[in-house]
Amino acid sequence: MEKPVNTVQKVKTLRKHPLIELLKNNKGNPKTLILMEPLWGIPYNLIAPFATLYMYTQGITDVQIGLILSVAMFVQVFFSFIGGIITDKFGRKFTTMMGDFFGWCVACLIWSVSGNFWFFLIAVLFNSFEQINQTAWYCLLIEDADSKDLLGIYTWVNIGGLVAIFFAPISGLLINSFTVVPVVRVLYFVFAVNMLIKVIVTFRYCDETRQGKIRMAETKDTTVLQMLYEYKDLIPKVLMDKEIMKVLIVSVILHITNLVTTNFFSLYVTQRLGIADRYLAFFPILNAAVMLIFMIGVQHRLESVKFRIPMWIGLVLYASCSILLILTPVGGMPFIIIYVFVAAVASALVMPRKDALLQLNINPKERARINALIMSFTIAFASPFGYFAGWLSSIDRRLPFVFTFSIFIVAIIIVGRIRDPEFGKEHREVDDPVVHD
Length: 437
Hints:
Blueprint: H1 2-15, H2 18-25, H3 29-47, H4 51-57, H5 62-90, H6 92-113, H7 117-127, H8 130-142, H9 150-165, H10 168-178, H11 180-205, H12 210-218, H13 224-229, H14 231-240, H15 242-272, H16 282-297, H17 308-327, H18 333-360, H19 367-382, H20 384-395, H21 399-415, H22 425-431
Helix pairs in contact: 2-9, 3-9, 3-10, 3-11, 5-6, 5-7, 5-8, 5-12, 5-19, 5-20, 6-7, 6-8, 6-11, 8-19, 9-16, 9-18, 10-11, 15-18, 15-19, 15-20, 15-21, 16-18, 17-18, 17-21
């Protein structure tokens, strides 16, 4: 009779988990957007391990892959820069919907029929529209939420993507039977359909935020050129804010390292280490399982140590992972498994805290434009490194990971100097007066 009682007790305990409580108590945009995340996450994670291989199999070289990434990032700087203006002028909800439609739905349709360098480039350029929606989506997600809930909300966003990864073996099994190209073509088409559904759900169940309504009213009679001109006062304020600049530099470094890992890890393990293509889908699953266990079982227990120490430990683990990957012998599957395991813990420690830390240091009144500036700065600084990583990979497939190790060291030094934010007063004072239905 003990087992059923234990099971009931475990269910009750799970229901009282801080993350479950957070989701139950957030009835508005955060809950809707979190629950919709698998619509994006499932097809993305089915495709991600094979996206570079999909291009490579169709004759796209390492250098061309790097060039596509760098050109796309250059365009993304423009879209990120104007993303704040569009978000303020047309609203968080509308901008999110348009970004999902053009940046994912249309882009995935093009990817599904791509067969040469130019088609892949056009698809990636359309995908750059997604940078406009990044600013709007973050505002829609967190603007009406309590600042103390931000780490939990970002943890849920990560969990939503991670759960989707468990579908990844499907693509591995299909590729084993039908080869990479036809399977990935179908998956891109499914991705396009999913994003269309996501647009419809956003339209039906999300509401414009309070701050979004204020900014739409304030910018109604202001031209886009005037709003661009106003950046001359905003940019110096961002550049002079030491805490924002520290988090920005770390964000750039993480963007670059993620770019390198996402696009060159699969080539490295298959072409240099001799790991079979079919195992590529296994690594994201292991990563997701470790991150989920960590986020559900450990993350909420680290609230007392705030941000800096967990981020610093995570970056040290990231740097260690780069060294481990470089030293992995040919066919060294156990070493790759250890790499994935440690990288997952590092990601669980770093990513939600980096996102929350950034939002806690931003003036809520200017959240859209400052987020847009930060994204455009991040992409602008990172953009040359897609081509650079491709060039390094063409010389020796280990070199991109030597590079990631060196910049992780820089991030470790910077995070050691970051100040933990106070949850407070400033955010409440700004948010409270905007309730005026």
